[in-house]
Amino acid sequence: MHKEHTLTKNQQIIFDLIDKSPEPMKAYSILFNVQKKGIKAPLQVYRALDKLVEIGKIHKIESRNAFIACHNSSCQVSKATAFSICEICEKVTEISSASLSKYLANFKDKDGMKYSKYNLEFFGLCKKCR
Amino acid sequence: MHKEHTLTKNQQIIFDLIDKSPEPMKAYSILFNVQKKGIKAPLQVYRALDKLVEIGKIHKIESRNAFIACHNSSCQVSKATAFSICEICEKVTEISSASLSKYLANFKDKDGMKYSKYNLEFFGLCKKCR
DNA sequence: ATTTAGATTGTTATAATATAACACTATGTA
DNA sequence: TACATAGTGTTATATTATAACAATCTAAAT
Fold first, then answer.
1. Which nucleotides of D are covered by protein (CB under 7 A)?
2. Which residue, A68, A71, A72, A70, is CA-closest to A60?
3. CA torsion sign, B36 to B42 to B56 to B25?
4. Residue A107: closest CA among chain B residues belongs to which residue?
C-alpha cells in the first residue's frame, strides 16, 4: 500500500535506539546515546528524527518534546495520532482505537471542515500510578 | 462556579497582549512586546504564562510553542482543549464543540481508563488558504 | 495594626531544544 | 556518464525554557 522506506545508516541507528526504549526519548538524550556510533552533532539527530517522523516510523510527543516509535501498524504514514501520558511516571502509550480515529477523522468543525491530520494527547495516571 | 483569579500586574499585561493578538504568540515575542512595560526577563514572561495556563486564561499550542487566549467561556479552568491549525497561514482556532468534548471525556482506552484532561490539535488548511 | 504563609517579582546565569548555512558524498535513474 | 535528489558532517547560532536566590507583595488570621 505504501512505499517501504529503506532507512539510511543514521536513521536506522536512531530508530533502533528509540524503538528499544521503553519510554519516549529526547533529542539530546538520543544524541548522547549515539555518539559512540559516530553521530556527533544535534543536526544529525534532528535530521534523522524529522525523516522518521515524516515516514511514520516514530512520533513526536509534542507536550514532552520527546520521540516514541510507532507501534500502530496502521499508521506507518499516518499523521493521525493519539497518546495517553501518565502525569506521574511519564509513561506514554500510543492509542490505536478504530472508533476514536474514525470519530476524529469524521469530525467537522463549525465551518464543516474535516481533518485527516491530528494529534491527540490524553493526560492522566497510568495503572501503576493510580 | 469557579474562583475568579485576580491577575497580577505582569499577568495582566501579558494576558492583554495575548488576548489582543490575532494569532498565537511565542514567549520571546511576548517578551519583546512587553519590555517597554518593564518586563525585562524571560522568566517573568514564563512565570506569567505558566499561571495563565494554569487558571485557563490562555492555552499553549504545543506543536507551535505558542500561546493563545481562551475564547471558550466553558473552559476557564479546563484542561480539555482542541484547536485547528492551518498549515499554511498558521491560523489557530479554538474548537468548542460539545459533542467533541463529550466524546473525548467519555473515551475509554483499552484498559477502560477515562481522561478528563487532553489536548487535541487538528491540522489542515483554513478557509482562506484552501 | 502585626504577623505570617504563600505567591509573585526581579535578577543573573545557564540549560535544553532546534535550526541556518555550506561544502561534500552517496544513491538511483535517465 | 551525468544528473537530480537525498543524506552527511561540520561549525555556528537561534530559540525555548528553567535554576537559584533574595526581595517584595498580598491576603487571612490573629
1. 7-13, 15-20, 27
2. A68
3. positive
4. B100
Q: Is the pLDDT of residue B77 over 70?
A: no
Q: Which grid coordinates are listed for B61?
A: 499550542
CA closest to D8 C1', residue: A44
| A69 contacts: CB under 8 Å, gap ≥ 6 | A15, A18, A19, A21, A57, A58
Residue B77's CB is within 10 A of a number of other CB atoms, namely: 14
The residues that bridge with B118 in the sheet, in sequence order, are A122, B80
The domain locations on chain A are 9-124
Angle between helices A27-34 and A42-54 (to 10 degrees): 120
Name residue A58's beta-bridge partners: A69
A119 touches B: beta carbon within 8 Å: yes
Query: Do A93 and B84 count as a contact with CB atoms less than 8 A apart?
Result: no
CATH class given for the domain over B9-124: mainly alpha
Band (B120; pLDDT cuts 50, 70, 90)? very high
